Amino acid sequence: MPINSASSLGAFLKDRRTRLDPASFGFSGRRRTPGLRREEVAQRANISPTWYTWLEQGRGGAPSADVLNRIAKGLLLTEPEREHFFMLGLGRPPEVRYKSVEGVNPRLQRLLDTLDASPALIKTATWDVVAWNRAAEVVLTDYSALPAGQRNILRFIFRSPALREKQHDWQGLARFVVGAFRADAARAGAVSEVGELVDELCSVSPEFDALWRENDVLGHGDGTKRLKHPELGDIELEYSAFAVDGRPDLSMIVYNPVDSTVADRIRALARRPKDKSR
């Protein structure tokens, strides 16, 4: 256990334990102090009451990651609390645990919608697009017209001839996204989750297969994207990627038009009613 962290770990455990309502866990009986008893936390975590008591008292040495995870589950710690718990107990954050995502909360969607001239989207670590704004629909892809399972950026790039035709440098884009995709999946602990997608693309795209075998790893910070748009013509967009706080599996990408005239034209396209016949 890191130096001077034993007492902090014990204080954190005691504080979280005393915040819990015993009745909600089926524990009864009169109590002189609020919260769960130590032996009740040990029972929920499936560890020795003596070992748990030592942890609260700052004794017993460094706990294992497995013990910390069981205690975190028993105490109903949030993900930020669990990370803090690991930092106190082991001096490092816990291993990431990937969670699949089907959508985003309304706050994030409203943020995207305020960007009326800047295409913006939120993607998962497996590069599935789970949220986007109207500008993204008219400039990039109308994700709303696609089934949820088909909104994957890598599938667009390697399986869509129409998307390839819009790119000024498809080869450079393909190399970049494969390297960034590999890094994102590993960072979020989603390597096993992307196996089926990787196998699919390797089987249908020799280009993806070759790039995947190169094992390049790239960051996804910012840069410039040039597109051949059917209505806007040749346009240039500056993009930036942002982490979504508390969600290592999500990132937001915003594309800003370099030319203000293009921005005005994107706004006009975005305000145009959608074609319901499509």
Primary descriptors:
14% strand; 5 strands; 278 residues; 46% helix; alpha+beta; single chain
Task: Give your account of this protein's structure.
This protein has 278 residues and is α+β, with helices and mostly antiparallel strands. It is 46% helix and 14% strand. It has 13 helices and 5 strands. The protein has helices at residues 6-19, 38-45, 49-56, 65-74, 79-90, 106-113, 134-139, 153-159, 161-166, 170-187, 195-204, 206-214, 260-271, and strands spanning 120-124, 129-132, 222-229, 233-244, 247-257. The radius of gyration is 24 Å and the shape is elongated. The relative contact order is 0.11. The model has no long low-confidence stretch (mean pLDDT 88).
Number of strands: 5
Our Rg estimate from Cα atoms comes to 24 Å
What class, by secondary structure content? Answer: alpha+beta
Q: Helix content range of the residues, please?
A: 40-55%
Q: Separation of termini?
A: 60 Å
| Number of helical elements | 13
* Beta-strand content estimate: 5-15%
Q: What is the typical, i.e. mean, pLDDT?
A: 88
Biggest sheet architecture: 5 strands, antiparallel
What are the segments in which pLDDT stays under 50 over at least 5 consecutive residues? none
So what's the overall shape? elongated
Major sheet: arrangement of strands: 2-1-5-4-3
